[in-house]
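thought: fold this chain, then report.
action: predict
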Amino acid sequence: MIQDPKRYTITAALPYTNGPIHIGHLAGVYVPSDIYARFLRMQGKDVAFICGSDEHGVAISMKAKKEGITPQQVIDKYDGIIRKSFEDFGISFDNYSRTSAKIHHETASEFFRKLYDEGKFIEETTDQLYDEKADQFLADRFVTGTCPKCGNEEAYGDQCEKCGSSLNATDLINPKSTITGTKPVLKSTKHWFLPLDQYDAFLREWILEGHKNDWKPNVFGQVKSWLEDGLRPRAVTRDLDWGIDVPVEGAEGKKLYVWFDAPIGYISSTKEWAAREGKDWEPYWKSQDTKLVHFIGKDNIVFHCVIFPAMLKAEGSYILPDNVPANEFLNLEGNKLSTSKNWAVWLHEYLLDFPEKQDVLRYALTANAPETKDNDFTWKDFQARNNNELVAIFGNFINRVVVLTNKYYNGVIPQPNELTEVDQATLTELKAYPAVIASSVERYRFREALGELMNVARLGNKYLADEEPWKIIKENPERVQTQMYVALQIAAALSVLAEPFLPFTANKLKNILKLNNTLSWNDISNTSDLLPSGNQIGEAELLFAKIEDDEIQKQIDKLEATKVANKAENAKAEPQKDIITFEDFAKVDLRIGTIIEAEKMPKANKLLVLKVDTGIDVRTIVSGIAEHFSPEEVIGKRVTVLVNLAPRSLRGVESEGMLLLSNTAEGKLVFVNPDAEGVINGAVIG
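observation:
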């Protein structure tokens, strides 16, 4: 660990521009990194908070093929949506670039060329999967098959998302092209490989020895597993038509592998920022007194802890990350977030339903962050955290303080009188919180840090509840002056300490208290008068509003509709039954009928007893449709009846036939009935 670094380079995983940003991205990477960057800036630290759109690789090509547009149109569309989402949620990047930028193409090409010229790559001709029908080599994500490690039949050519194993496409059992659905063949092609096995000793010493005490267990454990499994050379080029050209002779038609090019995007984005700000970019990536921290999700651990460090080590002039505090995955209502299945809460849609509630989502995602294990986001939990914590604790305290100050003193901060032991103990406890919160943030324990922030609000609520100034204002106004002064100091502290976590709320609170960013983080511990007597504050405004049940039900219904749509989209017809002869079919007597009476079978939840006019007779038929239809719904229905089925006794009622029904993709029963006019009961079907 670097002690007292001179500057910080903070990177957040580059989002793929093949879709918008959802809450899983926010919880896993962007809110934690933003909290960290904002906190450091409030300490007066030199910070470069870097990100950008990842615009190369197969994910973009797949999206373009699916939508029938060009890769450039895909990246331009989603880069704009993603930038807007980050801005809307207060993610305070110092620079947000894109890997399609000229500076990135130049930086990635120079990086590759240096390693190439120094002989750091292995050049090999290998057999790769090739789609003969599409007449192209298949990049990793254009291949699916069975994972050789866990048996998942939908593993990709680079990774199994079920067990997390990193794969090569040729490792898959029964591979299939996602372009044409055909089985690919093996075909020879030349590529350049980074010999990761040559960096095994370096990685073991750097991570397994050097970071065994300060890296998160989930990160350390995954890297350890990778190293113990044995490192092998990994291709840094691909046969693709979208990406950065491999800058050497004999590499026509080949592009840099996206996982070689993408992390270099952090460097090119830093260059872009430094040029704009008139700074030198190199100290942020090459000086030993710089602390480099990568914020990523767990699916990117191997690239940021093994492959990218090996690339930096091979290049020779770059520093290595001090920490990679990767989070686990966030699930949604018990199911894995899925972009392709639309099982997500999209940030741009969230703000349409919950305008100006960015901080509520930031709070809920931080309080439930998947820091060491997968966690589940539910709308009910979101509602409870807003109503029971933000509204009832934080908002309630601020509202009481501001309302009482305006009521008693016309908004002017009163002069305190002699402090009691309770007052002094409360202010002493308040001064300890910046260090407590800082300790948690510096160890990347953002849930813990947020909990301590809420304890500051709890401290204020407890102080007011115990002191009850509203009860003694008439007989002891001097004492109330002191009480309100102490409470206002807590409110001022909250406006500062909340800023990394709830930036919109902190800004709103500062405006109410008329602080105008005059306080720093360290002032909370070092300054006695955070809000001096005689200062004027503004009128009360609600920081948080209660979220009602119907708002939450709307979101739950939206997800249920997604489930139904996914089920319908993926519905498959049942396999054909065994072949029958015409003579077999001729025995079946199907007739048109009308249900004329219906009632529920006593003590049977699934059965209706029906009277059906078949045109031949009126007969009783017992049907297991009661969970889908009420008796009133089916009276008068035209139906198709199998009339020559042998009678069968059901709960003492003899059933003389069977109605024909089918299932929709959503699992709903529907009658198979005639829709033409003039068909009489008893008409034969056949």
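thought: worth noting. The first helix runs from residue 23 to 42.
final: tokens above.
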